[in-house]
């Protein structure tokens, strides 16, 4: 324990500023322990963070902490959380970045992408947004080289490759490489990363831009609907927010942690999501469907079932002779149609 503390003190020797990126995923308990460790490192136990200047970078509308409360939650559940909340309240300077440097430009496509980002931030994404993102699949991007292995990985599972250290200079754009001894890690999802043992070598060039989108569409022909879940939940009625809000049973007034506004529960907007588990040839598919997809197939607005979702669940469970079209990552249901339709490609995924 003493050696660990000595190493921490050595590592932070001379450090004046501590920058914490993506602070939205930092919970109250973790923040309190950061405070304690900073005090131990500097020896200044009576000063917040041991006298270090803390800079929090990120967007509170993004991913929240796991199994912990957000830093600004005003009802801490433990002594550590109380300490954390008090420390967070001492932050009194905010710098708001208003220009999106990653998506500059004035053409129509760039403007659509900026609006998509805003909706994604507010939890208000639509099927049209998903379709727009599909246009950036590797097979649709011209004049860009992709290794067959990573092209397939992106299409089937959205696996990203992160290159670290000296490996960065070994890789150049528009070239093909073979990577060995990579590791699978989880940051904000699955990710392959290079390691000290990774070897990078030149690979034979391949032409992958000719793949047709029709070949990538996956249809499941007449599967069995094993189970279904329909969730109806309130969302913030602030049109600039539209975040999902949670309410304690019996509560009439709720507060949105996204925009910090209070409202009557009865005045909230309502949203729904549908999850299906399908089985075909002993293989299961766990899918999420936007209401629009279900609406188009059933030819009715599923929001009429908001007071009794069991009726909608029953309809979904009783579906027969229906073909389901899946997204390329096999997670979204993008279309449903009667099996008699000649349009469907009945190749199972």
TrEMBL record:
Protein name: ATP-dependent DNA helicase
Pfam families assigned to the protein according to its UniProt record, in alphabetical order: PIF1
Keyword DNA repair (UniProt): yes
Family as reported in the entry's similarity comment: Belongs to the helicase family.
Catalytic reaction equation(s): ATP + H2O = ADP + phosphate + H(+)
UniProt-listed Gene3D superfamilies: P-loop containing nucleotide triphosphate hydrolases (3.40.50.300)
Class of the enzyme per the UniProt entry, highest EC level: isomerase
Cofactors required: Mg(2+)
Domain DNA helicase Pif1-like DEAD-box helicase: 7-126
Biological-process GO terms, alphabetical: DNA recombination; DNA repair; telomere maintenance
EC number(s) per entry: 5.6.2.3
Gene source species: Desmophyllum pertusum
GO molecular function: 5'-3' DNA helicase activity; ATP binding; hydrolase activity
Key words, A-Z: ATP-binding, DNA damage, DNA recombination, DNA repair, Helicase, Hydrolase, Nucleotide-binding
């Amino acid at each position: 324990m003493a050696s660990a503390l000595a190493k921490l003190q050595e590592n932070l020797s001379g450090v004046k500023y501590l920058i914490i990126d993506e602070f939205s995923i930092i919970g109250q308990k973790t923040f309190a322990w950061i405070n304690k460790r900073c005090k131990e490192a500097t020896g200044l136990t009576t000063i917040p963070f041991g006298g270090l200047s803390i800079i929090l970078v990120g967007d509170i509308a993004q991913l929240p902490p796991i199994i912990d409360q957000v830093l600004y939650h005003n009802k801490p559940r433990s002594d550590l959380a109380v300490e954390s909340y008090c420390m967070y309240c001492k932050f009194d300077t905010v710098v708001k970045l208003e220009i999106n440097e990653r998506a500059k430009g004035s053409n129509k496509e760039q403007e659509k992408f900026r609006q998509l980002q805003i909706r994604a931030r507010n939890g208000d994404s639509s099927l049209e947004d998903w379709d727009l993102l599909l246009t950036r699949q590797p097979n649709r991007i011209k004049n860009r080289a992709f290794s067959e292995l990573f092209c397939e990985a992106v299409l089937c599972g959205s696996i990203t490759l992160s290159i670290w250290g000296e490996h960065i200079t070994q890789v150049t754009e528009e070239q093909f490489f073979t990577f060995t001894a990579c590791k699978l890690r989880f940051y904000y999802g699955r990710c392959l990363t290079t390691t000290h043992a990774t070897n990078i070598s030149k690979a034979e060039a391949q032409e992958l831009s000719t793949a047709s989108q029709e070949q990538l569409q996956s249809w499941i022909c007449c599967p069995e609907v094993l189970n279904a879940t329909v969730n109806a939940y309130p969302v913030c009625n602030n049109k600039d927010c539209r975040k999902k809000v949670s309410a304690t049973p019996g509560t009439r007034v709720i507060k949105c942690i996204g925009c910090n506004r209070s409202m009557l529960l009865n005045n909230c907007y309502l949203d729904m999501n549908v999850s299906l588990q399908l089985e075909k040839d002993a293989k299961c598919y766990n899918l999420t469907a936007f209401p629009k997809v279900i609406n188009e197939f059933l030819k009715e607005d599923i929001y009429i079932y908001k007071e009794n979702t069991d009726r909608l669940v029953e309809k979904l469970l009783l579906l027969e002779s229906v073909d389901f079209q899946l997204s390329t990552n096999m997670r979204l249901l993008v279309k449903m149609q009667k099996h008699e339709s000649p349009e469907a490609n009945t190749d199972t995924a």
